Amino acid sequence: MNIAIAQYHVEAQPSWDAYVSKITSWIQEAASNGAQVLVFPEYASLELASLLAPHIQADVKLQLPALQAFLPDFVELHRSLAALHGVYVVAGSFPVADGGKYVNRAYFLTPQGTVHHQDKLVMTRFEDEKWGVAAGEGLTVFHTSLGNVGINICYDSEFPHLARALAEGGAEVLLVPSCTETIMGYHRVEIGSRARALENQMYAVQSPLVGAVPWNEAIDVNTGAAGAYGPIDHGFSAQGDGVVTKGPLGVATWVYVTLDIARLRRVRADGTTLNYQHWPLGEAQAKGGAEVVTLGVSRMQTPTTA
């Protein structure tokens, strides 16, 4: 499976046509380099807010309803380009009005021209408390001829049971579109992705927003690097740490990687360790909870004050 991972910089666009030209160019470049699956980051769609009035650009709560006018054309643009180039595309996630609330939705477009999606399920404090973006519902595994794919949007990658449910549904590749302001946020998603790859003996692929967007308060600062992570076993990474590839921090570019799905399946069946198979054993041991033992504190351990 050949994947192009976007380190994507949101830029102010003068018109819808200019935005179309940019997305078309990015997808054309990745497809011409042999990519079969293209992954854009979380909230890359907020580039469209640059087409709104300045006072709306400055207030995310005004952006959410205003952006809905672009949604049909946004989906159709990515759908048509996926079909044209014969690739799968994870479009930059979009805050979609759905059932009286806004959800953070990543559309998954196929070479056959079909449209699917995965919503974010666990919201950050910024989304929940400041932006008014709420949790979606449900997980989906996309079975393709290249391998089986699931999506955890950013913060979702930090919760093991979400990726585990996808793995039990057959997912072999976890796609992680992300948007993080600080280096700490980036590393939380990176480490979460690497942990999910370890636990489930799957690949995890992180696609970040990068760079400054001073006109948009929601994504004004973005820190990250693309990465692809695999099981920590023979044949996945040069250093034996599970890092298949990693892009340069903060640079707008495609990062390309080829994932060996056949090797992944062999390791799940007969690897050095069997984390994927042994998950139920860990769950069974944890069912009774943990015994709490209160230990006495000796005089030597008692803190003193001046």
From TrEMBL:
<keyword id="KW-0378">Hydrolase</keyword>
<dbReference type="GO" id="GO:0016787">
    <property type="term" value="F:hydrolase activity"/>
</dbReference>
<dbReference type="InterPro" id="IPR036526">
    <property type="entry name" value="C-N_Hydrolase_sf"/>
</dbReference>
<feature type="domain" description="CN hydrolase">
    <location>
        <begin position="1"/>
        <end position="261"/>
    </location>
</feature>
<protein>
    <submittedName>
        <fullName>Putative amidohydrolase</fullName>
    </submittedName>
</protein>
<dbReference type="Pfam" id="PF00795">
    <property type="entry name" value="CN_hydrolase"/>
</dbReference>
<dbReference type="InterPro" id="IPR003010">
    <property type="entry name" value="C-N_Hydrolase"/>
</dbReference>
